[in-house]
Design a protein that fits this description.
The chain is 70% helix and 11% strand. The protein is mainly alpha-helical.
């Protein structure tokens, strides 16, 4: 009888132990799943908040850069200089010469003819190359369609079709290069407006500095090229004079 009781007790104890192990594993597994889910939820919340606030944060940073330079607050004069400089080059980008008019100065009416003279010259050069390009294209197409016969008496000197095509390509290349030069001239106009605005508003020296150029005579004694002057005691030169008031 005691043996049977011991056997029954042992079997019951084994079942209870297995049940406790399964319960413990299940609790640990459920806790791990809940922890992973909560972590993912937190990450998703952070991502959503970052995406939602990113534009506002970037806008605030850009706005701050307007008023701070290396964490130093800009004064009103510095802000006005930057505004005027930006206005000048942007206006020249829209319309050549507009930024120069914005900057003002005594040479503004000299700059405008130079700027637009460059554009007029570019247009004339473009028309020259384009006219010759079309002329050669027309002649090349005619010779291809008519077994080498020519139609333009001005192009009789081109005996072969290959020479005619090479000349046509050369005119086309020069025409396209004129377009690039025109774009560069436009960019130079923008650069001049920006540079002039910076020099005018940031480095203004007022009327305290005078500058004068006058002709003069320089003595030849002691100069390295004295023997080349054939005994002349003086040579003509130019004198630069700076005066401060």
């Amino acid at each position: 009888m005691p043996k049977y009781l011991f056997l029954i007790f042992f079997v019951l104890y084994s079942f209870v132990g297995v049940a406790q192990v399964d319960t413990t594993k299940r609790i640990v597994l459920d806790s791990t799943i809940n922890l992973v889910d909560s972590t993912k939820a937190a990450q998703d919340t952070v991502k959503k908040e970052t995406r939602a606030q990113r534009k506002a944060r970037e806008k605030a940073e850009k706005e701050r850069e307007k008023y701070y330079y290396k964490d130093i607050l800009k004064d009103s004069t510095r802000l006005e200089i930057e505004r005027l400089s930006n206005v000048a080059w942007r206006r020249s980008l829209i319309l050549p010469g507009w930024g120069q008019i914005t900057n003002g100065g005594r040479f503004v009416w000299v700059k405008l003819p130079i700027i637009y003279g460059g554009f007029v010259t570019s247009a004339l050069v473009f028309d020259f190359w384009n006219w010759h390009y079309k002329k050669f294209v027309k002649e090349a197409a005619y010779r291809i369609d008519n077994n080498g016969d020519w139609s333009d008496p001005d192009l009789q000197g081109f005996q072969t079709l290959d020479g005619l095509i090479r000349a046509k390509d050369n005119y086309r290349r020069n025409r396209d290069m004129t377009i690039l030069v025109t774009v560069g001239w436009w960019g130079l106009n923008v650069l001049e407006a920006y540079t002039d605005s910076m020099l005018r508003f940031r480095y203004d020296i007022g009327d305290d500095l005078g500058f004068k150029v006058t002709p003069t005579l320089l003595p030849t004694s002691g100069l390295a090229y004295t023997n080349m002057n054939l005994g002349r005691p003086y040579v003509p030169g130019v004198k630069l004079t700076f005066s401060f008031k």
